[in-house]
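Risk register update: the risk of archive-format incompatibility is retired. Evidence:
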Amino acid sequence: MLPALAHIDCWIFDLDNCLYPSSANLFELIDRRMGDYIQRLCGVDAAEARRMQKSYFHEHGTTLAGLMRTRGVDPHDFLDFVHDIDLARIAADPEMVASIDRLPGRKFVFTNGDERYARRVLDRLGLANAFDGMHDIHAMDYVPKPNPASYAALCERHGIEPKTALFAED
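Archived output:
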């Protein structure tokens, strides 16, 4: 352990593109599913669904928030649909698994995704039992990172002292 990190007693990891390489591009699959969801929900073609999706993202912070506010979408229904993807693009990295296991203190996953999806990804990565807790989009009351309120909620919920925590984000 580097001496500069000796005071760290809590390790917080983003999930996507952080615990697995960004080259896996799982978001490409999720993005397609978001388009499919909007097409089905709104009865529009793929181009209009894409325009709506990006508009919701820019105006509301996430596609989900936009759909909830403008269409009354149930977040569980949306997240179950968009996260129903094949995870074959990712695999366990034994060296990373061992490195995370060696970290002293508590370890958390902090994700704008939902816990069900995160658990599937962690299982695929060989990290199913590596973390002490998770803070997902539901726990954030659908106010995603990078909103400061989401970080405050994480720290409050899990008793994390920010001065002795390290957050790894892509």
